[in-house]
Amino acid sequence: MTVDTDELDIKELLKTLTAVKKGNFSVRMPIDKTGLAGKVADTLNDIIELNQRMVQEFNRISTVVGKEGKITQR
């Protein structure tokens, strides 16, 4: 039996999307796929990473503004 590495695992995709929806930005799609499935996994992983960085930056800004009152801090 051969395994098609170009086939997207829909269950894995749903598991990853559900975790992200709940705020878990540590999840990633496996990067062992090729072709279109690999591109979808890579793109989703990039989106998750961007969201993770955005949340971290919002938290940092919230801390600076909320605790220190420095609204001009970058």
Keywords:
74 residues; mainly alpha; 62% helix; 0% strand; elongated
Q: Please state the structural category.
A: mainly alpha
Cα separation of the termini: 55 Å
Major sheet, described briefly? none
**What gross morphology would you assign?**
elongated
The fraction of residues assigned to DSSP E strands is under 5%
Helix content: 55-70%
Average pLDDT level: 88
Please count the beta strands (DSSP E, at least 2 residues each): 0
Please provide a written account of the structure.
The protein is elongated, with a radius of gyration of 17 Å. By secondary structure, the protein is mainly α. It has one domain.
Quick overview:
The protein has 2 helices and no strands. The protein has helices at about 10-20, 35-70. It is elongated, with a radius of gyration of 17 Å.
Helices and strands, with pairings:
Layout: H1 10-21, H2 35-68
